[in-house]
Design brief:
Layout (H helix, E strand, L loop, with lengths): L2 H18 L18 E5 L4 H10 L4 E7 L2 E9 L19 H9 L5 E2 L8 E9 L5
Parallel strand pairs: 1-2
Antiparallel strand pairs: 2-3, 3-5, 4-5
């Protein structure tokens, strides 16, 4: 197992434990059409394209938690159709874009950021914020 995989697995366990014990109760998880709350974890330095693949694997939307030098941050990736207005601001990340860069960008746009070609449906990222995790 690589150092990266060890870090990611350790962070995945930390997020799961904090969610299970209610330590991050102020976070509203994204709920999909089946009533599930997909949670995706990443490290800030990972390629955004890799993480968008993880989001696609859970149906195209969910709550993303990412760990980096600034601590733990999260963003909601939601379906961008129906009653929701698609924000005019669109993410067009370059090939070298990381999750950390993406979260920085989304945090600058309170109305969210459209993710135009990432999924089979319109999607947007919104509510980027720092999340306090307990040492649970």
């Amino acid at each position: 197992m690589t150092i990266h995989q060890n870090r990611l697995d350790r962070f995945r366990r930390e997020v799961s434990l904090n969610l299970a014990v209610g330590a991050v109760a102020d976070v509203d998880l994204v709920t999909n059409d089946q009533g599930d709350c997909p949670v995706i974890v990443s490290l800030d330095y990972e390629d955004l394209s890799t993480i968008l693949g993880r989001v696609r694997a859970v149906g195209g939307y969910g709550t993303l938690f990412s760990a980096g030098p600034a601590g733990v941050r999260m963003v909601s990736i939601i379906r961008g159709s129906g009653a929701f207005k698609i924000p005019e601001e669109q993410a067009s990340p370059g090939a070298d874009a990381t999750v950390g860069m993406f979260l920085d960008y989304v945090s600058l746009h309170p109305d969210g950021v459209a993710i135009p070609a990432a999924f089979e449906h319109p999607a947007r990222a919104e509510n980027a914020q720092i999340v306090e995790m307990s040492g649970a």
